[in-house]
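Input set for joint prediction.
Command: fold jointly, output tokens.
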Amino acid sequence: MPTLDILVPHYNDAAGLELTLGSIAAQTWQGETRVVIVDDGSRPESAATARALGEAFVHPVTFIANERNRGRPYTRNVLLDSIDSPYVAWLDAGDEWYPEKLAAQFEALARMEAAAPGEALWMSCHYHWKWLDQQAFRVKRQLTEQDQIKALLIGTDLRAYLWTLLGRAETFRNVGWFDEKLPRLQDLDYFLRFVLKRGRIVEPGHPDALCIYHKSDLGRSAAQIRQCNDYIFDRYRVLYNRYGSKFRRTRLYHMEMHSARFAANNDDDALAREYMWKAARARPRLFLRHLRRRTFRFRP
Amino acid sequence: MTTAVAEAASEEPAVRFARGKEVAIVIRLLADRSGGAERIYIELANMLAARGYEVTCLHYDHSRAKPFFALDPRIELINLHPDPVPFRHRMARWASRRSFIPKSLREKWGWFAANDIFIAQLRDFFTLRRPDVVLTFMPPANTPALLAAAGTGIKVIPTNHNVPLEDYTALDRWDPSAIDRAARLAALDHAARIHVIFPRFADWFPSHLQSRMVAMPNYVSEEILRAAPKPVREPRILAVGRLAKVKNYHTLLAAWALIAADHPGWKVVVYGVGPQMKVLKTEAERLGVAGSFLLEGHRGNLGEEYARMSIFCHPAHFEGFGLAAAEALALGMPVVAFADCPGVSEFVVDGVNGLMVDRNGGAKALAAALRRLIEDEALRQRLGEAGPASVAGFTQARYAERWIEVIEELTVPAAAQHADA
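tokens >
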């Protein structure tokens, strides 16, 4: 049995998958690895390329094809259901790990598991954030020594990115299925459930980023993002309430601005203005500060 | 390089990755608390999670400490307490403790400070998460949860772990304010079912609630049952419980002082901690029985103690479920208790598995029963042998099954209920 299952969802991005598989092949960690690719009903030529990439890969690959496009959470559930190894890592097609990622995470996880036996740990890491159409990237740090529920709700210095994680298989199974009502933000819901189930997110103490996120807002529906934020806001309302009304209003403000960014980046200025108006009503001072600092730019 | 290719199943998503029914279990204080109710709370949550329910445990603790007992990692645990507490609630709490403020206002503000946010949080949880069933533990959680659920259609089952008279009317239990005592009983109108430990406890409740009562006794844990009773037992009288007024260990001490000199080979061993530790020690010294009345403090695994000692004495004034007495019976000990002790008299029968003493006889009557058992080994043997069968129904499996019956009955889809009708 392999030591590690690497779970890779794929949808119409064979070039991204090739990049991703290349980064897996370049890992310095030498343990037995199986890669599971679930194609979520891609176009036939894209699915065929993905399958061919799997067949040619250096590690054993299990390739599963959804019979039609079922969406991200369903695909994640198929991946979750396919776990067969004691350890699990996730990597979305299109994103990359740096060669030392798994080695650094396995070493740190073994050390921390020895120090806290029986505790459910997810080993995350710092990462690079790069807009797809730009060359520059920024380091984003995962700061784990804080109230992790509050930090996840804020989503600034502890983000719910599954592709940063390494953990034991049962820690993922215990969280349960991804919520299929969340076509977006299903990972945030999943991380919150993990922490509410007494799991702890940790990072290896490696000073550098260990992976890179190729970010793009293009083609993503701002309205869908807003609906998913609404769903999260309702589902975890008692957590938002816990930190006070100012915190709650500030999170609402950021949800509106988040959707405004997606709308603006997809050239829907009218919708972007609508979300910004709602944001301004939730936290007028914050909105004015945003205008002073960033005008209407959403990208770095 | 091996590539296995499989096609994903074609079921609908809701079927393939379906989640279980959502059960929320509410208690007010859980952080680092090791009492019997907290243990049952955690074990019930674990039992339901193991049977496929999506369980969320809700509590309202100022402390951020973890629960004392281990919670299944599939269960969400949410502390509803705000951090920081809003200014007006802090002020209400402050005002409720000022003696120059009229009592009626103090009670009102105190109740507001203790319950307002708890109720608001529960109401948000109920209306936004829509759990299939909510179970609540003990009056400080029962009342807020029932008030929060009023009008929402959420099915709430308050659980009562003591004698109803004590839980609903006693002035020295829970919040003694008139507001809380009135709300405690009135809120039961919003309950889908009302749990009591024994059927007889249901009789206390008003007639319009009778159709909603469900009786479920607690259980003897499997950990206790792992101990094997010793063929030859030591000459020890065992008592187990919190050293508090309600357990009435002063009467046991007084009884022992009456007979100790006649039975120099025997000792009384008390396991438990509590506010009366010091005063019981002093009293034992004063009565000259400090060497044979042993206050041993907290003990982890009591199974071995039940298995090796000869007589179990439980002089409590009242119990919801006399767990220690049930555990002693399960491991073959005869029990001595007062005949009017609810929660013990439900399963200890005089002359069958123990000796039940008239409380009016006080320490003398208790001493007489203990003396009788000490001096009559055959009687000890006979009563002890009847013990395990008398509590055989108090199992964890039966407890879980009974809860699942109630939950399933409440959560059957309306269409199916109509079809059955």
